[in-house]
Amino acid sequence: MSIQKTKQSQVLRMDNKVYAVRCQDYSQVEEKLKELLEPMGGVERFVKPKENILLKPNLLLAAAPEKAVTTHPALVTAVGNMTKSLGASPLIADSPGSGYPHSVKRLNRLYEKCGMDKVETEGNISINYDTTWKAVSFPEGKLIKRIEVITPVLEADGMINLCKLKTHTFMGMTGAVKNIFGIIPGLKKPGYHAKLHDTDCFADMLLDLTVYAAPRLSIMDAVLAMEGNGPGGGEPRQVGLLLAAANPLALDVIAGEIIGLPRDSNPILLAAEKRGLSPTRPEKIELIGMDLRELRIPDFKLPATFSQGSGMALLPSWIIKPLEALFKTGTSLKPRVLKDKCTACGACRDSCPVHVIEIIEGKYAQINHKNCIRCYCCHEICQDNAIELRSSLLHRLINRN
């Protein structure tokens, strides 16, 4: 595969610089993107003429750009045009979230709703319709040695990672590293959740995927971010930033600082530090363009699954973690179907890695909570906001305000 020309073992060690610029509106993206990339050496540092470059946005599900679920088409267009200006051939590709098949029909709906169809017709930038994939060997992986990968990733000379700044009920935050999960075809994703339903293991898997995919450049759409119970059901939050880094891990460190996600609640950073990857702390990062103090958002809403109350949450994580593992069903939030909103589409059922959701009489979904592993894939993928996360008494005691 040609994308492997980048030295994979270097992707999470290559440098400690993160770049940031203010961008209050998507009408400014083209101008601000040039300002962002210029001190990095421009996009030409990462793209050469005649290369096939994969543009990997976050296209979790079919949602309008103003919902802040997906990478905004204005950013994708701007990066695509920069790539074309160098004589390279950009291709937009992603696989939708768990529960959605990687099919032409699904991709058509996804592109139309997310605005990627306009990127193709108006920007003349190609979008992917190849739904094939291949299982590849990856001996370098710490946790996973074999990965199912969509074909456009395998055929590209390099990848530009166009991630979105969002909260995530399972992993705390979606950023540059988590975005790489989209290289796995849709209905293969639940299998990863089933086998790796512990956040630490899932984080290790995401790091393996990132080392494998080796994105040359990661650019974060934080103009309109998502707070609350993301990545699909949170609320849009105006942040007004574009960020970029050669090292996706460094980018996630700064993104976590911006939204106020405690380091102990960021499984990816904890897993990376155990591996000896760097940087995992803000003091080890050179932030260029802005000061971190002016970037932090003190009232950014974290997911309810990562709330920081007073109660037992004042205890150190090394005490809380074993308690939560011991009493997982009691200390975690429970996904609950809102029957009046449910359309019985079946996406939650298909996304469930342990198959504990069924559709009752073609009217609504029902969850067997006894065997639920609390991965929140059902909440993440529901386009009708018909699955809420309800706290138990024990969870409220641990996270009480």
Folded structure, characterized:
Strands 1, 2, 3, 4, 7, 8, 9, 10 and 11 form a nine-stranded mixed beta sheet that branches. The protein has a two-stranded antiparallel ribbon with strand order 5-6. The protein has a two-stranded antiparallel sheet with strand order 12-15. By secondary structure, it is of the alpha/beta class. It has helices at residues 29-37, 73-85, 104-114, 116-121, 151-155, 189-195, 199-213, 248-259, 267-275, 292-295, 317-326, 328-331, 347-351, 377-381, 393-398, and strands at residues 17-22, 52-57, 89-92, 126-127, 133-137, 146-150, 158-168, 172-174, 217-227, 235-245, 286-288, 334-337, 357-360, 364-367, 387-390. Helices cover 30% and strands 21% of the residues. The radius of gyration is 20 Å and the shape is globular. It folds into two domains: 2-295, 3-Layer(aba) Sandwich (Rossmann fold); 307-398, Alpha-Beta Plaits, CATH 3.30.70. The chain is built from 15 helices and 15 strands.
Short description:
The chain is an alpha/beta fold and about 400 residues long. It has helices at about 30-35, 75-85, 105-115, 115-120, 150-155, 190-195, 200-215, 250-260, 265-275, 290-295, 315-325, 330, 345-350, 375-380, 395-400; strands spanning about 15-20, 50-55, 90, 125, 135, 145-150, 160-170, 170-175, 215-225, 235-245, 285-290, 335, 355-360, 365, 385-390. It has two domains: about 1-295, Rossmann fold (3-Layer(aba) Sandwich), CATH 3.40.50.11440; about 305-400, Alpha-Beta Plaits (2-Layer Sandwich).
